[in-house]
Design brief:
This protein has about 230 residues and is mainly α. The chain has 14 helices and no strands. The radius of gyration is 18 Å and the shape is globular.
């Protein structure tokens, strides 16, 4: 993909964004996954600049046509990749603050929590990440309650991976403290910290400080294993 050339300084990032705009009618999951990953890298790089909000507008513009086509509910004859694509696109739009996606995610989350209409497995991560990214302490408390109540480890892991999307500094600290609590299996702590590190500029700084402050405990917990290298990588 051209982004690797942009990162190498061969072509400008502007040219890459123009190429991305050409894919708005592309139905292929793999292509959108690649676009999403590369836009995520750009968002991370731009989070320390004045262009961060502009890249969020760009994400909304690029992903909204495919989001409108897919909708929220599966259509007859859809395959597994369509469900994956829907989750990817809605999560991307939700995180970027796409108004209609955020409103629908909040509505569906409320129904899910109240037991009126349980979210399908493929919609949970995009809904969770959306409501957390634009949520408050009540949102986080509700997510932690869902984690505690979850019967399946798969659901606990799904929640652990997205908690880092929360934006407020004091709530980020709450998530990091939760990562080392008895509520999280030792092998899953790294996923929570990694989610915080990847969630925002504030999250990256907080996660880095948290790892340094708790290095002895983390090192003793994971020494000699692959999780310590994964922790360092994230």
């Amino acid at each position: 993909f051209p982004l690797s050339q942009a990162r190498a300084g061969i072509i400008s990032t502007v040219e890459v964004l123009k190429v991305m705009e050409a894919f708005v009618n592309e139905p292929n999951y793999t292509v959108w996954s690649d676009l999403s990953c590369n836009l995520g890298i750009l968002s991370t790089l731009l989070s320390h600049t004045d262009f961060y909000e502009e890249i969020q507008v760009f994400v909304r513009d690029v992903f909204s046509p495919i989001g409108e086509r897919l909708g929220w509910d599966p259509k007859p004859g859809e395959g597994h990749l369509d469900a994956l694509l829907r989750g990817l696109v809605l999560g991307k739009l939700g995180k970027a603050g796409h108004k209609a996606t955020l409103e629908e995610a909040r509505r569906r989350f409320k129904d899910h929590v109240e037991g009126k209409h349980i979210l399908s497995a493929d919609l949970r991560s995009p809904v969770y990440v959306t409501i957390l990214k634009h949520g408050d302490s009540t949102t986080l408390d509700t997510m932690l309650k869902l984690h505690k109540q979850a019967d399946m480890q798969e659901e606990k892991n799904r929640i652990e991976r997205v908690l880092g999307a929360i934006s407020q500094p004091e709530l980020i600290q709450k998530v990091l403290t939760f990562a080392l609590s008895e509520e999280v299996r030792p092998q899953d702590t790294v996923s929570v910290i990694g989610g915080v590190a990847g969630g925002s500029k504030q999250g990256r700084k907080a996660a880095w400080k948290f790892v340094r402050d708790n290095w002895e405990e983390l090192y003793n917990r994971y020494q000699g294993g692959f999780l310590i290298s994964r922790l360092i990588k994230v």
